[in-house]
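COMPLEX REQUEST
Ligand: coenzyme A
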Amino acid sequence: MLDAIGASPHGLRLPDRAELSSIFPRLAIDQADAAEIIEGWPSPTKDPEIWWLLERAYHALVSDLGGIEPLRWPNLPPEFGATGRFFYVYLFLAALGDVRAWHERRGIPDDVSWTTLADLGRNLTRDRRLLGDSGLRTSAWLTLHFRGVIYALGRLQFNLSRFQEGPALGIHIPESGPLSPEACDASFRWAQEFFPAHFPETPWRVGMCYSWLLDDQLAEYLDERSNIIRFQRRFRIVGEGSNGDAEILRFVFKRIAPDIDELPQRTKLERAIVAHLRAGRHWRNRTGWLPL
Ligand SMILES: CC(C)(COP(=O)(O)OP(=O)(O)OC[C@H]1O[C@@H](n2cnc3c(N)ncnc32)[C@H](O)[C@@H]1OP(=O)(O)O)[C@@H](O)C(=O)NCCC(=O)NCCS
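STATUS: Structure written out below.
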């Protein structure tokens, strides 16, 4: 399949090393990751196989600027070492100029552009913490950022998406402090101005969210005034959802398949998650929508 894609006719260019000291902080890439990224820096002569893949992935990514479906590509096998673990970082660095130009053509303010793309660094930090090793595994999610279809607008992120056959804005909640109703109101107001101004061709009338945060069972444990409960009350829930045990454990405890007897029990939510699972019950990811 990759053979059919071919390399980009425009050629692949990674940023010059001299530019990296200004690019890394803007992408929230911390010093530990920056050092490893530079150490594994690929070249066509040193890493012909990786370079071959990189050219094709780059071509597929930048030919689909504005594409709303996440591009799901596999991680490289461990024998490719750090260069393989950071493969998708090199891909996104190669596409940085393309997505920045796309943002400029759409009139996206510079601060929104950089804040949005800085999710790259945050995901590197998250993956290191979650998996105990450096590298980027959340590449499908970031193909939205580097094709210009997701934007960080204050507390929430919004992506161009579809819901029930029509255009919709996907709503995402990054981990960045409390989910206060005021901050959410401000984000929704911003989105209502931002998308008609920068993407006037599509009339988005609904927002939708798929998350453990919308599980109505949380109301059995959290106060009515809690930010999570107030957030979920904004949405009309549809469908049955799916098992959300893995997601809630990953997002709240930053662990994959933990022993629940060893989890911290400091907050109401932490205690709720464990009590619920000990009772033999399950958490759910639910889908909700709201008019915009
Ligand atoms: C979404 C989020 C910001 C909500 O936090 P919040 O605004 O503090 O939420 P609430 O006011 O409803 O908190 C209610 C209780 O749960 C606790 N709580 C909420 N989120 C928590 C978390 N991630 N870890 C531990 N405890 C948490 C609060 O401390 C509070 O308990 P307390 O009264 O004992 O202190 C937070 O859970 C978070 O950052 N999650 C990670 C991102 C995420 O999951 N995104 C969705 C992906 S699908």
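REMARKS: The CA atoms of residues 180 and 227 lie 6 Å apart. The domain at 181-291 is CATH 3.40.630.120 (Aminopeptidase).
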